[in-house]
Write a structure and sequence with these properties.
two-stranded antiparallel ribbon, single chain, 10 helices, 3-stranded mixed sheet, disordered C terminus
Length: 287
C-alpha cells in the first residue's frame, strides 16, 4: 500500500469508525441494516419535512377523498404498533398518482392516485406500502448510505491529491466514484427497500383486515396502467422492474395471508364512473 494513501484511509476510518455501530434488524423480514442516525433524528426530520410539504401544497377539499384516507389510514396505523408516532393523513390536491409516508407516520396521498383506486383495499395497499418504508426505517438507512458515500468520496479526493494527481485526473476519478456508488451501492439498496416495503406492506394490510391478494391485484393493475410510460431498465432504476416486482409480490401474498383474520369493518368500493373519478382533484383539471 503506498504510504501516501495512509493519511486518507486513516481519515476515512476515523470518520466512519464511530458511526458503524447502529446495526438493527428490519421488522418482519429480519434483514440487518446499518443506521448512522437515531430514531429521534429521523422523527424530527420527518415532522419538519411534513410541515414544509403542507405549507407548499394545497390540501384537497373533497370530503370523500379525505374521509377515505382517514378511514383506511387509521386502520393501518392501528396495526403498525407505533403509538409513539404522531400519525397524520392528508390528501394533497395534485394530479400526480403518488403517495408517501415520512418518519413519524406522516402520510400524504395525492388526489391523482384515486384514478387507479377501486376500493379501500387498493388505498390500504398504497398506504401500507408507504408506512412499511417508515417501519423499516428506510429513510434513515438511505441517509446513512449517503453519509458513507460522502465520507468515501472525501477520502478518495484526499488520496488523489496525496498521490500528486492533476486536478483533471482527480475530477475524473471522483466522477467514476460517484457513478460507482450510485449504480453499485446506493440504488440497489433502494430496489431492495422497495421489495421489502411491498412484503411488509402486504402484511400490514392483512393485519388491518384487507385481503393481501387484493394488494397484488392493485399492483398488477397499476403496472398495466402505467406500462405505456417510459421506464428505466431495472439495473439503473430505483424501483424494481415490473415483472420482477410482481413475481416477488406473488411470493409475499402467502406469507401475508398468515396475518389475515377478518375483513376490516366498513370497507367501501369506489365508483368507476361519476363524481368520484370525475372530480377535478382526481382528473387533474385546473378548472
Amino acid at each position: 500500500m503506498p504510504s501516501s494513501l495512509l493519511p486518507s484511509l486513516a481519515l476515512l476510518l476515523a470518520l466512519s469508525g464511530p458511526l458503524l455501530t447502529g446495526c438493527v434488524s428490519v421488522p418482519y423480514t429480519g434483514r440487518s441494516q446499518l443506521l448512522m442516525v437515531s430514531q429521534e433524528q429521523e422523527l424530527r426530520l420527518g415532522y419538519q419535512a411534513f410541515e414544509q410539504i403542507k405549507y407548499r401544497s394545497r390540501p384537497s377539499r373533497d370530503p370523500r377523498l379525505n374521509e377515505a384516507v382517514q378511514r383506511v389510514g387509521r386502520q393501518i396505523a392501528r396495526v403498525a404498533e407505533r403509538p409513539d408516532f404522531r400519525w397524520e393523513f392528508v390528501v394533497i390536491d395534485d394530479p400526480t398518482a403518488n403517495a408517501f409516508c415520512l418518519p413519524g407516520g406522516k402520510v400524504g396521498v395525492y388526489a391523482g392516485l384515486f384514478r387507479y383506486l377501486k376500493s379501500d383495499a387498493d388505498l390500504a395497499t398504497v398506504i401500507s406500502h408507504e408506512a412499511a418504508h417508515v417501519l423499516a426505517r428506510h429513510a434513515g438507512e438511505r441517509l446513512s448510505q449517503n453519509m458513507l458515500a460522502q465520507v468515501g468520496g472525501t477520502g478518495l479526493g484526499l488520496a488523489m491529491a496525496g498521490m500528486g494527481a492533476s486536478p483533471a485526473a482527480g475530477q475524473l476519478a471522483m466522477l467514476g466514484y460517484g457513478m460507482g456508488t450510485q449504480v453499485g451501492l446506493l440504488l440497489p439498496y433502494s430496489r431492495q427497500q422497495e421489495y421489502e416495503a411491498d412484503r411488509i406492506g402486504l402484511i400490514l394490510m392483512a393485519k388491518a383486515g384487507y385481503d393481501p391478494a387484493l394488494g397484488l391485484d392493485f399492483w398488477r393493475r397499476f403496472a398495466t396502467a402505467k406500462a405505456d410510460k417510459l421506464s428505466l431498465p431495472a439495473f439503473v432504476s430505483t424501483h424494481p422492474g415490473t415483472g420482477d416486482r410482481i413475481r416477488a409480490l406473488e411470493g409475499a401474498v402467502a406469507e401475508a395471508r398468515r396475518y389475515y383474520t377478518a375483513p376490516a369493518a366498513g370497507q367501501q368500493t369506489y365508483p368507476e364512473v361519476g363524481p368520484w373519478h370525475g372530480h377535478r382533484n382526481v382528473a387533474g383539471s385546473s378548472k
